[in-house]
Amino acid sequence: MKVFNKLDKLKQKLDSYRPLPPEIVANLHEDLVLRWTYNSNAIEGNTLTLKETKVALEGITVGGKTMREHFEAINHQEAIFFVEELVKRHEALTEWHIKSIHQLILKNIDDAHAGVYRKTNVIIAGADHVPPDALHVESEMQGFINWYKETALALHPVERAARVHADFVKIHPFTDGNGRASRLLMNLELMKDGYPPVVLPVEKRLEYYEALDTAHTKQDYEPFLCLIAEVVEAGFKPYWQALGVNP
């Protein structure tokens, strides 16, 4: 896809400024963790605002909000930190990574199902796609990891990240938390190749769900790839602003 060439050039430009000053890195990281956590949770129905999410991440309880919503924010931040550690290790994706990320997402919320593949069938509200029978989840996930090892690594990093997201969430291996896990996995792949992690804005939720459903029911990944390419491009903007650069 032509758009990948554009993204490669943006990455090359950003790489030319590396290593970035530590104060810029710290500032960008704090902003990213907040926006990523807020938007990913909001897509799933968490009602904390951006400012309330910031307060919750600082360890302060927001009045009128459930403990679950607070844990969703705190857990997501922990999951981001875990993903960043995995990036430093330069390891290929494994089922252990996936289950560990999921375990962090549901910690103190649903410990019995945290990091455990579902044993029941599920229906995704509003989607045409029906995830595989619970009996097939284990083998589907093994197939997913095999695909990653044998095929995914040859793809462009942005396409690989998008496909990891879409194909993982198609299996829907957990009872809850699949969406958050899939976005963390997508960013894990992007960050491994030096791309800035992306934030899927909650405002694009409908377009996002429709593109995923098209990929899952028609095997047409183009709308989803275009959407992810768009948010990857947007992921560079905070860097240009911080550096005072016109891309």
Give the helix/strand layout.
Layout: H1 2-15, H2 22-43, H3 50-57, H4 67-89, H5 95-105, H6 137-150, H7 157-171, H8 178-192, H9 205-218, H10 222-243
What's the quick description here?
With 247 residues, the protein is an all-alpha fold.
The SSE string, one letter per element, is HHHHHHHHHH
Largest sheet, described in full?
Answer: none
Distance between the termini: 21 Å
| Share of helix, binned | 55-70%
DSSP strand content: under 5%
CATH architecture: Orthogonal Bundle
Q: Kindly state the number of beta strands.
A: 0
CATH topology: Fic-like fold
Alpha plus pi helix count: 10
Query: Shape, please?
Result: globular
Mean pLDDT across all amino acids: 97
Your description of this structure?
By secondary structure, the protein is mainly α. It has a single domain (2-241), classed as Fic-like fold. Helix content is 64%, strand content 0%. The chain is built from 10 helices and no strands. The chain has helices at 2-15, 22-43, 50-57, 67-89, 95-105, 137-150, 157-171, 178-192, 205-218, 222-243.
Distinctive features:
mainly alpha, globular, 247 residues, Fic-like fold
